[in-house]
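WARN retry 2 of 3 for item q-0093 after timeout on previous attempt; input resubmitted unchanged.
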Amino acid sequence: MESIKEVQIGSQIWMAENLNVLELSNGDVIKEAQSDLDWAECDANGVPAWCYYDNDPTKGKLYNWFAVTDSKNIAPQGWHIADTWEWDILENYLIDNGYSWDGSTLHDGIAKSMSSTTGWSQGSAAGAPGNDQSSNNRSGFNAFPNGNREGNNFGNVGMIATFWTTRSGQPTNARNVQITVGHPSIFSNRHYRQNGYPIRFIRDASTASVNAVSYTHLTLPTICSV
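OK item q-0093 returned
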């Protein structure tokens, strides 16, 4: 299996790229939903599924809500999909350590520091990922704007990086975290569970199994060392 990068940010260790697996941790194959009907049937029957954005294999994988919540787990031992409070820890660490675009520790301006240096649509808003992309990604988190699937519609490539969390909302909704091309802050939102988004893992212990996935460790710049 291809190597997947990780990055330490404060006391947390995150994946530094989006998940790209075909199986749950027990070896069960995650269904590839190649058609609108496949995607809808998986949603209706609680089946873990993934698809390529617009069914284009050159784009990243988008997973459904049931891939996030299946009891057989998509994450290998020692890892998990982050809850919203773990994203809050990440956000607060970056703010407190000067990773806002203007160096301020008084507000959330960390979207650039979390975003990839390529792939975003061009923009002019100060501190936003689309403005001067070469200065993005000081944190090493490397959020890439893969876009998303909303029901049977694909959209927002180059515009949005959205990540599932494990936090359920109302009966038809779940929480996710979002970085947008034109805004310096990150957001927590509720979206419908039938949507498809990328997944990131966070380590849940000082050591983690690499039986399911091989990890290459990255280190942060001195400003963000523990």
